[in-house]
Amino acid sequence: MSNVTGKAYGMNVITPMKPWRTWFNRFSFMISRSIPSSLGGLLGLRFIHFARWAIIKRDQWPDLGQGKQQLANDYLLFCSNFNGTWDQYIDAFADGLPNGLDLLWYTSTKYPHSVPITPFKNYIRANQIDTNYYYNSVPGAAQRDVTAALRVREALLKLETNLQASTPEQFRALYVRYLCTVQNDLGYEGRAPVASNDTENAEINREDYLHFAGELATSAR
């Protein structure tokens, strides 16, 4: 299991839904795409890298050698990448987009609604598929760190285009101007949060053991 890599968490949730109810999900997806404001609470959560809901019909599962599946249900697949802990994400999701979550998951079997939060969390955890492999190209960066770095890059590229055509005085003025626009984007990324206190403590204890074992091995020579 590798749901966490660096500052990012990868979530995969797959929930069954009766085939005769799938049309409602397609209709709700159409509404969400045509009226982006219906997901305004989601778009405002800046710690989310990516979130997507997709319908997988019961006859669309790939045959990877296991034979054709005979399934009674269609499924709703939810995939998301975000910064922070699992609890923080679910809390923010339910607080910022309760009606949107209910609209998108309404047809899923035994869906308890996003409020109150405890049954919703239990439902998500019961249907979550842990990640076997999770790659993060920028493990030390959160979503805000990435967007900040892109703004700095854009400013540097603009400076580069003006380098040859500017006098030293003009270039200095441009440099100061662009520096002022991105000065809040030059912060330190910081360390990733601890995924598990038990794991962190185990690593600390393991270091002590390895150090002690190394000393014993040296003295034995």
Brief summary of the model shown:
It is built from 8 helices and 4 strands, in the order ββααββαααααα. It is of the alpha+beta class. It is extended, with a radius of gyration of 24 Å.
Task: Provide structural commentary.
Helix 6 packs antiparallel against helix 7. The protein is extended, with a radius of gyration of 24 Å. With about 220 residues, it is an alpha+beta fold. The longest helix is centred in the C-terminal third of the chain and has 24 residues.
Largest sheet: 4 strands, antiparallel
Q: Residue-averaged pLDDT, rounded?
A: 82
Q: How many domain units?
A: 2
| Second CATH tier, the architecture of the largest domain | 2-Layer Sandwich
> How far is the first residue's CA from the last residue's CA?
40 Å
Q: How would you sum up the global shape?
A: extended
How many helix segments? 8
- What portion of the residues fall into strands of 2 or more residues? 5-15%
Low-pLDDT windows of residues: none
CATH topology of the largest domain: Alpha-Beta Plaits
Instruction: Report the C-alpha radius of gyration, rounded.
Output: 24 Å
Kindly report the spatial arrangement of strands forming the biggest sheet.
1-2-4-3
- Helix fraction? 40-55%
User: What's the CATH class of the largest domain, please?
Assistant: Alpha Beta
Can you count the beta strands?
Answer: 4
The SSE order reads: EEHHEEHHHHHH
